[in-house]
Amino acid sequence: MKKVIIVDDEIAGRKLIKEYLEDYSDLVLLGEANNGVDAVKIINEFKPDLVFLDIQMPGMTGFDVLTHLEELPQIIFSTAYDQYALKAFEVHAVDYLLKPYTKDRFEKAIHKLSSNLSNNTAQNLTNSLLMDAEKYPKKILVESQNKLVTISVQEIIRIEAFGDYSKIITADKTYLSNFGISKLEEKLNTAIFLRVHRSSIINIDKIKELNKYGKSYDVTMQNTDIVRVSRGYMETIKKIMY
Predict the structure, then answer these.
(1) What global pTM score does this model have?
(2) pLDDT tens per residue, the chain (242 residues)?
(3) Do domains 2-119 and 134-238 have the same CATH topology?
(4) If you count Cβ atoms within 10 Å of the first and of the last residue's Cβ in the chain, which end, N or C, has fewer?
(5) Under CATH, to which class is 134-238 assigned?
(6) Measured between alpha carbons, how far is 33 from 16 in angstroms, rounded to an integer?
C-alpha cells in the first residue's frame, strides 16, 4: 500500500487524479492541497509515499515545495507546462504528466512506480535541488536509512572525505553525501566552512579550540572530534586567527 497526496491549484486537476486513482486499491489517498504552503505542511505531516505535484501554483512552485520537505517521496508531476520536464527528471521524478492527459497515460505513470522505487533509491537521489535553491543553502537533503531528510547547514560540525563520497558529521549523527568533498566545498559558504585538509572541512562556528602541533595545528571541535590542519592549508586557518 502506498500513501498518496495530491497537490494541484485546480479543482478539476485534483478531481481527475482522484477519479483515476479509484482503479488502484493499493494507492490510498490521504489528502490534497491547492497551494504550495499547504502542500509542505500536509506532506511533512503525513509522510506520503507518492505525491502528484503541480508545478505552477500561487506563492510557491512545485520545485519550491520539494526544497521544504523533511523527506522526499516519489513524485509524479502533473502540469500544463512542458518547459519544466527536464528539471523534473533532474530531481528524479517518476513521471511527468502533461495536461490534459488520458487514463492510459496515467496508467503508464503508475506502472513506473515499482521500477522507479528500485532505480531511484535514496542513495541515487541528489540534494542538488536544495543546493541550487540559493548560493549558500541554509538546508540540505541528506541520506538517512534509505530516505532523504532535511538538516540545517548550521548543524554540520565537519565534513570528511569518504572515497568518492563525503561524510557529513553533526552532533547527533553522521550522514553520507553523494557529493565528493571538493564539490561540497564549492557549494557551502567558505566564510563559515573552511577546508583544512584534503580530507576535511570544518565549520568555524563549531570550533572549540586550536592547539599547536609541530608546525601545524589540531582543531578540537565542539563534539570533541580532532581535525588535523595540513601544511598546505595553514594559510586558510591563519585567516581566522587574530
Answers:
(1) 0.53
(2) 899 999 999 999 999 999 999 999 999 999 999 998 899 999 999 999 999 999 988 778 888 888 888 888 999 999 887 777 767 666 678 889 998 899 999 999 999 887 655 444 333 444 444 444 456 777 787 877 767 777 889 999 999 999 989 999 999 999 988 889 998 898 888 889 999 999 999 999 999 999 988 888 999 999 999 999 998 999 888 888 87
(3) no
(4) C
(5) mainly beta
(6) 14
CATH-assigned architecture of domain 2-119: 3-Layer(aba) Sandwich (3.40)
Which H or E element spans position 27?
strand 27-33
Place of cell 500513501: 3
- Could you tell me the sign of the dihedral formed by the alpha carbons of 24, 26, 30, 34, in that order? negative
Q: How is the chain split into domains, by residue range?
A: 2-119, 134-238
* Grid coordinates belonging to 143: 541520506
